[in-house]
Every structure is written in C-alpha cells, then in structure tokens.
Amino acid sequence: MRYFITAIDTDSGKSLVSAILIKALKGDYWKPVQAGTPTDTNYVKALVQNSGSTFFKEAYMLQTPCSPHAAAEKENIQINTAEMDIPQTSNPLIIEGAGGALAPLNDEEFAIDIAKRTQAEVVLVSNLYLGSINHTLLTVEYLKQRNYKVKGIIFNGEPNPESESFILKYSGYPCLLRILPEEKINEDIVNHYAEKLAENW
Is the pLDDT of residue 193 over 80? Predict the structure, then answer.
C-alpha cells in the first residue's frame, strides 16, 4: 500500500506525519521532489528507528529552497512525474509531497499529481490557524473533484474543536490523528503519536 502525505500549506507538518506513519505502519519513505537542504529524508530518518524501513533516494534533488517548479527552472531541470521511478517494496510506502497539494512541479503538474502517478491513498495534513478552514476545504474540494482516494485528515496544532468539527463534517473524511504543539520533536514524540494513529487507522 502507498500513502501520499500532502497538506494545505507549506510547513504544515508533512515530515512529522510521515515519520509517524513510518513508525506506525513499519513502512518505507520516499520524498520524490526535494527543494533545498537540509533534506526532509534526513530529518525523517533521524526521527524513526525502524530497522526494517528503507529511505529511498529523491527522484529530483533541487538545491534552491523554493517552489519546485521555480527551483527546477533555475537549475535547468524539467520535473516530470511520468519519468519518476517508483520505489518497489513489500512494505507500505510513505510518500511525502512538496509544499501544499497544489505546489507546482512544472507548467502543468502539481505536487498532488504524484499521488495519482503512484496510485497512493492521500493523507491530508491540516495545520490549525486563522484561515485554515478555508484552505482545508479548498484542498478537499480539489481532491473530491479529481477523485482522489483519501484515507483521512490529520490535524496539527493547537486544538480548535469548532474548526475541526466543521472540516470533518463538510469533507466526510475521518480524523486519523490530532498532533498537539510540542516543545521538541524527537523519536519519543513520534512513537507516542504512532501509537495513537494505530487506534484510528
């Protein structure tokens, strides 16, 4: 099984969620498009101590820390999802997107298109802030219109029951996990949330 981790915005917590899924599902990890360093692959690897997990090499490793399409243009690289070699594994494969769901990869493709290319089920990360209902529901509308298969939503941030309830009711997606603000993100935190995720998976 493959799961594609996307979000409503950049810096929403996709890498942390990826680490949690890897731990909970004993999965492997792949970040197809990386723009800038340090890499998310190294960050996630430091949070997970699964001896059976593989961290696959990026399909596109860009040096410029900006939108993938802009970084690729600066470096004279053409990103094409059809040319990505999908890692083959018998473990669940956790695929982390770049930026938000509609972060452009090129003139025609978005980050979320990798989910279609890999036939992965989508896990949507919604970090809670003023305006996040709008951003989340716009992302939900896109996923529904394009017939993406969605596993559920993970909320990240200070709890907001009213926002969460409305998002879940409107989307019809289940809540897989709620991640609270943490002073420090480390392996223990990942293990803690991996146990909670297993309860709703």
Answer: yes
- Which of 31, 149, 169, 184 is an active site residue? 31
CA angle 12, 16, 19 (to 5 degrees): 145
Length of the chain: 201
Distance CA 5, CA 10 (A): 12
First to last CA, the chain: 13
Yes or no: say if 8 and 100 are a contact pair by the CB < 8 Å rule: yes
Three-state SS at 114: helix
Best CA proximity match to 201, nearest among 180, 179, 174, 178? 174
Number of domains in the chain: 1
Tokens in use for 65? 């820390």
> Is the Cβ–Cβ distance between 95 and 34 less than 8 Å?
no
Query: Exposed, middle or buried by CB within 10 Å (0-12, 13-18, 19+), for 83?
Result: exposed
- 169 is an active site residue: no
> What CATH number is given to the structural domain containing 182?
3.40.50.300
Residue type, 17: V
Owning domain of residue 187: 2-200
pTM above 0.90, yes or no: yes
Contact 190, 48 (CB under 8 A): yes
What secondary structure does DSSP assign to 43-62, as a single string? HHHHH---TT--EEPPSEEE
pLDDT tens sequence across 137-182: 999 999 999 999 999 999 999 999 999 999 999 999 999 999 999 9
